[in-house]
Amino acid sequence: MIKEFFRKRSINVCIVNTGGCNGCDIELVSLLASRYDIEQYGIYVHNNPREADVLLVSGPVTLPWKNRLKELYEKTPEPKIVVAVGACALSCGIFKEGNVCGPVDKIIPVDATIPGCPPRPSEIIQAILKVAPIALSKREEHLKKIASEN
Amino acid sequence: MNVVPLGPINPIFKEPIRIKLIVEGETVLGAEIEMGYVHRGIEKIMEGKHYLKGIYLAERVCGICSYIHTWTFAECIEHISNIEVPDKARYLRVLTTELERIHSHLIAISVYGLSIEHETFGIWCLNTREHVMDLLETITGNRINMGFNVVGGVRQDINKEMIDKIYKKLEELRNDMKNILEIYNTGPLINLRGRGVGVIGYKEIMKTRAVGPVARASALPESDWRLRHPTYKELKFKPVWAKEGDNSARTLVRIKEILASIDLIEKILELYQESTGAVRNRVNIKGGSGEWKNEAHRGEVTYKISLTDGGIIKRIIIRSPSVMNLEAYKYMLKTCPTVSDAVTTYISIDPCISCTERTIVLVDKKTGKTKPYSFK
Ligand code: SF4
């Protein structure tokens, strides 16, 4: 019971840079600063795919990342949500002709997108807060399913 | 002997890189670095494009030091075709670069703070940085990837209100930085954690050609390319340096450099207010090839460009500082007693992987032949 109650209110986030220019990553890191203070919403940046609920993917998928990203997606435990951050992750942006194998949604399913090069931290928070309820409801369904099976 | 793999996704790494630490018990014996995760082939995309497109690509070599890349790119082309840049633009370029240096160094210090598990210190630096980002947004219009530089000058001028705002914020920033410096020097948990860890001396620096704050923390102040830049010469710039060469000294050099940058900005604002005229000149591109160096936040960055008369880029070579600094990491590992020290040492050299992954060799896919990436 207690575990269920608290897991509903904590979302773990993992940042994956699949070959972007770092700009989007830095804006994601600055969410930790006390001006934006992402932890007040119960969102924790852990960078550990094995305990993540939300994967924030930034950057076009470069060739070495292609299989790794699939692996990473499989490693993430079930109710999971993928958010593509930045123009690169949406459409490869400026690096379309380079050493890349396509935008993120070509490799793994994407649930939400944030356009911008890079998007502002406030936009990122807004987006995460919008998809978080979906993640939570998905998790509730999942927990119910497990409960009914037992 | 065992191998501890770190990355490409690791709680403390900002960017994807894989490090295999070779350990015996807790003692670190060596490291193997595997790169290539962020290689996008920017040089190849730039070839055959107009320089106006090239400057945006140069900006996206790295998001943390995006401004210095456009500056070096622009100055390289100005150097090739003998373009005069107005005084105002020269000062504005230095102003923005120094602001960016402050934000980049603050990120480095903050991540170092997080990596030694001193979260308060880390988040404090991160919060101080937001004020610098505000200033950058006021001047250029964007927080990161500003698109402020053009060949022949800068895109926009600043006005009186902005100057007042900059002065006010700088004063606050100076007080904050003095507090941070005091905490850093007197707080035993922060400073002692890095003493004698990851030491690198003069001899090894010469062997690996390490640059930037890494070299300056090992008593090599002349490695600063700002000493050779014409605008900085006008400001009588003096580099900051230390002689211990360990993690603690590297972070200290960064903190002191921020204070030096604040002084530089105040000087440049005075010079700016005395100058008049436009901020941008009409340009007339002549073909040719040339090279230009600048001091980025992590060390020297080199651009080598050859272009045609119309301004089409034929070949471009970019060399960024982190390559040499990562080489120096090998020698620092000798004084890392534990695995967690090896990680903090890696963070303390502040590597930038997006910058590092440049084209070095070309491989012919059909024949499998390799050749170095050069002008010929
Ligand atoms: S969207 Fe822009 S800022 Fe983000 S990784 Fe791509 S180029 Fe960099």
CATH topology of chain A: Rossmann fold
Alpha carbon gyration radius of chain A: 16 Å
Q: Strand count, sense and closure of the main sheet of chain A?
A: 5 strands, parallel
* Portion in strands of chain B: 5-15%
Keywords (chain B): Iron, Magnesium, Metal-binding, NAD, Nickel, Oxidoreductase, Translocase, Transport
Protein name (chain B): NADH-quinone oxidoreductase subunit D domain-containing protein
Family (chain B): Belongs to the complex I 49 kDa subunit family.
GO molecular function (chain B): ferredoxin hydrogenase activity; NAD binding; nickel cation binding; oxidoreductase activity, acting on NAD(P)H; quinone binding
Write the layout of secondary structure elements.
The complex is a heterodimer of chains A (150) and B (376).
Chain A: H1 2-8, E1 11-17, H2 23-29, E2 43-45, E3 54-58, H3 65-75, E4 81-85, H4 86-91, E5 112-114, H5 121-149
Parallel strand pairs in A: 1-2, 1-3, 3-4, 4-5
Chain B: E1 2-6, E2 18-24, E3 27-34, H1 42-46, H2 51-59, H3 66-80, H4 87-115, H5 119-140, E4 149-150, E5 153-154, H6 160-186, H7 188-191, H8 202-208, H9 212-216, H10 230-234, H11 247-274, E6 288-296, E7 299-307, E8 313-319, H12 322-332, H13 339-348, H14 353-356, E9 361-363, E10 370-372
Antiparallel strand pairs in B: 1-2, 2-3, 4-5, 6-7, 7-8, 9-10
Helix pairs in contact in B: 2-3, 4-5, 4-11, 4-13, 5-6, 6-11
Bound molecules: iron/sulfur cluster.
Protein name (chain B): NADH-quinone oxidoreductase subunit D domain-containing protein
Keywords (chain B): Iron, Magnesium, Metal-binding, NAD, Nickel, Oxidoreductase, Translocase, Transport
Organism (chain B): Methanothermococcus okinawensis
